[in-house]
Amino acid sequence: MADLSINCAGIKSPNPFWLASAPPTNSGGQIQRAFDLGWGGAVWKTLGDQIINVNSRFWSLDYGSTRMMGLNNIELITARPWETNIREIIETKKKYPKNAVIVSMMIESKQEAWHEAVKEVNDTGCDGIELNFGCPHGMSERGMGSAVGQVPEYTKMITEWVKEVAEVPVLVKLTPNISNVAVTGRAAAAGKADGISLINTINSIMGVDLDNFAPFPASMAKARTAVIAARPSNRLRSIWSAPSRRTPTFASPFPASAASRRGRMPSSSWCSAPPACRSVPPSCITAIASSRT
């Protein structure tokens, strides 16, 4: 069998196929099953202060005869307790020492809060930390998610805070909801990030509930931001190509092995993935855009 092992930003993995931070990486059991099926790594669904998700969180878009050519969501970070996630991360890493376990984090923009959280994540034995500066859903008033990723100065500042105490490589997940994502990428590099991941969800409106005058999905008859999760189709292939086009943009501040791209794979690319990896929905894949080392 061919050697598919990689070293991305100092994170080693048996192959370049990782599960991105998403509902399928919301627990140790899910990630362990993925590793059994051949996935090389996984980014744990974003940890932070426990939240309560709303319902309904998803809506699909039909176009002509094409059903579900687009899928949106207003999914937040993990709704599971911090302590539960930390315990399962430790258990998963002990059981699968050769697989990459990356912990995604979204913390309030206070230096002491980041330091405390990162120190606890250090103790899990994880292989890396991903800073979620891309999530556009909620809590912007607390300086979290895309509220950070849309301001290069904040991106640099918080990355520096994390690097002060992190004992593993630090990746920064960027938001595409900015005029020039390369500016934020360079800010992450200036903050001494070890790598970047492109991209988080793209803001859009899939439809409008004319009874409630709110975008779908209309949760509790109140307007919510609707976000496309890149689904392979002729009309939305550009969402997969967006991070692909942007990856070379960051060749200067980062080495070739320190960038990854996120999103649904087009069906043509998905068919070329290893059989074990095709058993998991392509919406959750992270394709590492790096040279094998």
Structure report:
- The chain has 293 residues and is an alpha/beta fold.
- The chain has one domain: TIM Barrel (Alpha-Beta Barrel).
- Helices cover 26% and strands 23% of the residues.
- It is built from 8 helices and 16 strands.
- The protein has helices spanning 28-36, 82-95, 111-122, 146-149, 152-165, 181-190, 237-246, 267-270, and strands at 6-8, 11-13, 17-19, 41-47, 58-63, 66-73, 100-105, 128-132, 170-173, 195-198, 202-203, 208-209, 214-215, 227-229, 259-262, 285-288.
- Strands 3-4-7-8-9-10-15-16 form an 8-stranded mixed beta barrel, surrounded by 5 helices. The chain has a 4-stranded antiparallel sheet with strand order 5-6-14-11, with no helix packed on it.
- The longest helix is centred in the N-terminal third of the chain and has 14 residues, at 82-95.
- The chain is globular and about 50 Å long.
Question: What keywords describe this structure?
Answer:
293 residues; alpha/beta; eight-stranded mixed β-barrel; four-stranded antiparallel β-sheet
User: Which CATH architecture?
Assistant: Alpha-Beta Barrel
What's the helix-strand series?
EEEHEEEHEHEHHEHEEEEEHEHE
Distance between the termini: 17 Å
Structural class, judged by helices and strands? alpha/beta
Radius of gyration: 18 Å
How would you sum up the global shape?
globular
Mean pLDDT score, rounded?
A: 77
Portion of residues in beta strands equals 15-25%
Tell me about the biggest sheet? 8 strands, mixed, barrel
Annotated CATH homologous superfamily: Aldolase class I
- CATH class, please? Alpha Beta
Number of helices: 8
CATH names the topology as: TIM Barrel
Uncertain residue ranges: 221-241, 265-293
Q: What is the share of helical residues?
A: 25-40%
What's the arrangement of strands in the largest beta sheet?
Answer: 3-4-7-8-9-10-15-16
Q: What number of structural domains do the residues give?
A: 1
Total number of β-strand segments?
16
